[in-house]
Amino acid sequence: MTKETFDRKAPLVTVKVTVKVNNAIKEYIFAVDTGATITLISEIAIKDMGYSSGNSIGTTHTVTASRAETVYEYSLNNIMALGLIRRNFKVISRELPIGLGIDGLLGLNFFKHKELTIDFKRAEIRIQ
After folding, report:
1. Which of 1, 3, 28 is nearest to 91 (CA)?
2. Are 97 and 112 in contact (CB under 8 A)?
3. Tell me: the pLDDT tens digits for 91-106?
4. Between vectors from CA 24 to CA 99 and to CA 50, what angle results, nearest 5°?
5. Which residues contact 55 (CB under 8 A, 6 or more apart)?
6. What's this model's pTM, rounded to 2 decimal places?
7. Where are the alpha helices (DSSP H) in the chain?
8. Are 20 and 78 in contact (CB under 8 A)?
9. Cβ–Cβ under 8 Å, residues 17 and 27
């Protein structure tokens, strides 16, 4: 089991995410979003990782609370958070609202086949 603490006073439950790009390791901050079916990375962060629309694996349609839109899909070689490593991991990219202070959203596809517990009383997030 992996356990991390989070700031319960913060508006979002955030975790550190590490992405391996070529031989470089880059760190980002993602919000845990159990309402998102797929992991989303901001356009700024995906460009920082070295991706562009030219090396996307395609496009898909997504629906947010406010609109439907077409977004690019990418396959990340290696992404790690909360002790989990996902390889050849599908994500989407779109612009995030300014001021959130995050680089993306960890969606349900990241936690597939795992037990995820968000304990607000202890300010802990656990995965096993």
Report:
1. 28
2. no
3. 999 998 888 999 999 9
4. 60
5. 74
6. 0.92
7. 43-48, 108-111
8. yes
9. yes
Rg (CA), the chain: 14
Residues whose CB is less than 8 angstroms from the CB of residue 35 and which lie 6 or more positions away in sequence, other chains included: none
What's the CA dihedral at 49, 86, 34, 48 to 10 degrees?
0
Domains and CATH numbers, the chain: 2-127 (2.40.70.10)
Are the C-beta atoms of residues 33 and 105 closer than 8 Å to each other? yes
Q: What are residue 111's phi and psi, to 5 degrees?
A: -95, 5
pLDDT digits (tens, 9 = 90+) for 15-60: 999 999 888 999 999 999 999 999 999 999 999 999 998 889 999 9
d(CA 59, CA 48) in angstroms, rounded, equals 20
